Amino acid sequence: MEKTRNARGRYGINRYFLLWTAFSFLGWVFEVIVLYLEGSGFVNRGFLSFPICPIYGTCIVGTYLLIGTPDYPRGIFKLLRIRSIRYVLYFLAMFILPTLLEFVVGWIFDKGLGVSLWDYSRLPYNIGGYVSLPVSFGWGIGLFLCMELLCMPLKNLIGKIPNALCWVLAVSLGIAIGIEFTKTVTQALANKDFTKSLR
Fold first, then answer.
1. Structural domain of 162
2. Dihedral of alpha carbons 87, 93, 94, 95, sign
3. pLDDT tens-digit series, residues 28-55
4. Which of 5, 44, 63, 118 has its CA 20 to 30 A from that of 33?
5. Is residue 11 within 8 Å of residue 5, measured between CB atoms?
6. Domain assignment of residue 165, yes or no
7. Closest CA to 102 of 74, 150, 140
8. What pairing do the DSSP bridges indicate for beta strands 5-6 and 9-10?
9. Which pLDDT belongs to residue 46?
10. Which region holds residue 46: left if phi is over 0, alpha if psi is between -120 and 50, else beta?
11. Domain for residue 129, yes or no?
């Protein structure tokens, strides 16, 4: 059975925020490594100065809260008793959910702030350059593996942090990220030529 409580009480918003931050950081590391291997050298893939790519944390934590993991399903997925069917449908969800998020976020930043977060127009089967079939397929595989292999171990590890320390970390990071996000968005609104990358 999935652990929903830790030794010091319920898994609360402070711990979910730390989980979001951890996966946002791991997403940033992944992006930096990929670009480095492609020959671009070190590129800070974050929209913020912080080493995080919020779309990764949002996709992973959001997916966990909506439908759980393949082995610890939530919501409607909990009703699917046949594991193979659940896995296939879970993969389809991993394909669709981040694609929708990527489209919405990319469109809002492009149209609202004049910031191009990514451009898939060179890839086949793309929609406005915001999403494309090959990237969505990659999201499906990567997110499925992440939810299967990393989500619960990292969630349980964060669950072991003493509650007081957890709150201090969550509030400190939340304030720092909030200030940086506000500053960056303000800069983007003031300068339509502002271009940085977020994933």
1. 12-190
2. positive
3. 998 888 878 877 777 776 667 788 888 8
4. 63
5. yes
6. yes
7. 140
8. antiparallel
9. 65
10. beta
11. yes
Structure tokens belonging to residue 7: 């030794």
Helix 13-37 with 151-159: angle, nearest 10 deg: 130
Both tokens of residue 40?
């671009």
Residue 7 belongs to some domain of the structure: no
Domains in the chain, number:
1
Give the C-alpha separation, 68 to 92, whole Å: 14
Residue 174's contacts (CB-CB under 8 Å, 6 or more residues apart) are 17
Q: Which one has a higher pLDDT value, 73 or 172?
A: 172
Task: Tell me which amino acid residue 15 is.
Answer: R
Alpha helices in the chain (DSSP H): 13-37, 54-67, 83-108, 133-149, 151-159, 163-190
Residue 196 lies in a domain: no
Maximum alpha-carbon separation in the chain: 53
pLDDT score, position 9: 53
Q: Are 70 and 90 in contact (CB under 8 A)?
A: yes
Which residue in 51, 49, 62 sits closest to 17, CA to CA?
A: 62
Which pLDDT score is estimated for 191? 67
